[in-house]
Amino acid sequence: MKAIFFRAAVAAAALVTTSASAHAASASADAPITEADLAAHMRILAGDAFEGRAPGSDGEDRTIAYIVGEWAKAGLEAVPGSATPWLQPVPFVETEALNGTAKFKVRGRDFALADDGILLNGRDASVSLAGVPAVFVGYGVDGAGHVNADVRGKLAIMLFDNAPFGDKLPRYRERRQLLADAGAAAVLVIATDAVPWDALRESVGSKAMRLAGAKAGAPVSGFLSGAAADALFKAAGQDGAALRAAAKSPGYKGAALPATADFTAQSAVRAFASHNVVAKLPGARPDGKAVLFLGHWDHLGLCVPEGEADRICNGAVDNASGIAVLIEVAKRLGKGARPDRDIYFLATTAEEKGLLGARWFADHPVVPLGAITVALNVDTIAISPRGTPVATIGRGKPAYDAVVREVATKLGRTLDEDGEADAFIQRQDGWALGAKGVTSLMVGGSFSDMKLLEAFLSSHYHSAADNFSDKIPLGGAAEDADLHVALGRAFADTKRWRGTEK
Ligand SMILES: [Zn+2]
């Protein structure tokens, strides 16, 4: 590995001095990024000392120190004029449920839910509601993404899974917020098999995080286990399976239940700041446009109940892998011929809480959003082996697609253009920037082979098993890292890329 690097560096120096075109030389001079390069960062970032990289934890401090240290070594700089160099504080409000009660009545008679079947979160320090009528709302939205039922003053019981009648419809957090905006007094989300109940309780059940200043949720929110929901439906004379089936229609209007609920909830409300890490590689000939690389540094922290041997969700693949790639990409771009345009690097916080760090950046950008010619997000990249075709989430702008195709082809990659990858478009930080008009792409092999991706998502994903190990496939990640170096060079090259789609 060292020998190859040395040869490449020497070759680069030779070409730069003898070739009239430093551009052409630099494009071929970047030392390949290796599996070992990536593994070295992942082992550290996903180590137990980083405690699963939860926002606001000691693990955050370690994570940030590591990223800043590596990016500084790579030659990146703090964004000029920042009051907090390298860091963008992101203010959060966290509510942690201390205790809560839910008492249901069906047709006026007490109905007891199994103790373990409900998780409650109060919006404020103390909440008390009585006689709230219950309505099952299915996915909570219709085919156009609008709230599908009258929920004002009511308890809306909503399904967790994505609505099956559209691929651009909001995910559960956004749907829960829409119901709150529509006046729901309480929103309970029916858990799904995709997230084990224990994991849900540990990761999102007891704590809720939102951006300070963001719209508040319903006074009471929480989760119902599938079994608890079915028991309530049955007592109310409904069949859970039939309700779920009916909800699959885009025109579903919900079903009022002959049930009411009383809620009390006490919560500890804490304001704290987490941080996005932001850095800049100043361009050699800046023209007012910039390239933005981003990936989330955060993960789920302690995610397993007390008493278990391994309580840490280390997030090796999700997303120590992406941060490792961004560190090595910064090193290559910082070292070779300096790109024309400014290149920004952003490591976001609280992606796992709903793209919150990226949303904050999109609302408080350190560079005008209109100047960002492309945002390239790197997330969950250690999935596929070398040779996997390149898929692009966010494809569809011909001029951009052409650059990706040309760069990938030059590196000997083939392209996957079936569009399957777009199923994940809302599940990644680029979505927050795309919503504000920034062309955001996620390019690489991890979202190309759906069998490999699904195998990860249905096993180690968001669990304590997402640990670093030599078994994690890094060949595809290394290839995708090289691809990002080349994409960075292409989009930052004023002669090669004019900076807009038109
Ligand atoms: Zn994740």
Principal-axes geometry comes out as: elongated
| Beta strands, count | 16
Tally of structural domains: 3
Query: Could you name the CATH class of the largest domain?
Result: Alpha Beta
**Class per helix and strand makeup:** alpha/beta
| CATH architectural arrangement of the largest domain | 3-Layer(aba) Sandwich
Structural overview:
The protein has 502 residues and is an alpha/beta fold. It has three domains: 1-31; 35-77 and 282-491, Aminopeptidase (3-Layer(aba) Sandwich); 93-269, 3-Layer(bba) Sandwich (Glucose Oxidase, domain 1). Helices cover 32% and strands 24% of the residues. The protein has 14 helices and 16 strands. It has helices spanning 2-18, 22-29, 35-45, 58-74, 172-181, 197-205, 226-235, 240-247, 316-335, 356-363, 398-410, 430-434, 450-457, 475-491; strands at 87-106, 109-111, 118-122, 126-138, 155-159, 186-190, 207-211, 220-224, 255-281, 290-296, 301-302, 312-313, 342-348, 372-377, 391-393, 440-444. Strands 1, 2, 3, 4, 5, 6, 7, 8, 9, 10, 13, 14, 15 and 16 form a 14-stranded mixed β-sheet that branches. A hairpin with a 2-residue loop joins strand 1 and strand 2 (109-111). Helix 4 runs parallel beside helix 9 (316-335). 51% of the residues are buried. The model is unreliable at 1-27 (pLDDT under 50).
Concise overview:
32% of the residues lie in helices and 24% in strands.
Break the fold down into its secondary structure elements and pairings.
Blueprint: H1 2-18, H2 22-29, H3 35-45, H4 58-74, E1 87-106, E2 109-111, E3 118-122, E4 126-138, E5 155-159, H5 172-181, E6 186-190, H6 197-205, E7 207-211, E8 220-224, H7 226-235, H8 240-247, E9 255-281, E10 290-296, E11 301-302, E12 312-313, H9 316-335, E13 342-348, H10 356-363, E14 372-377, E15 391-393, H11 398-410, H12 430-434, E16 440-444, H13 450-457, H14 475-491
Helix pairs in contact: 1-2, 3-9, 4-9, 9-14, 11-14
The structure holds zinc ion (ZN).
Zinc ion (ZN) binds next to loops.
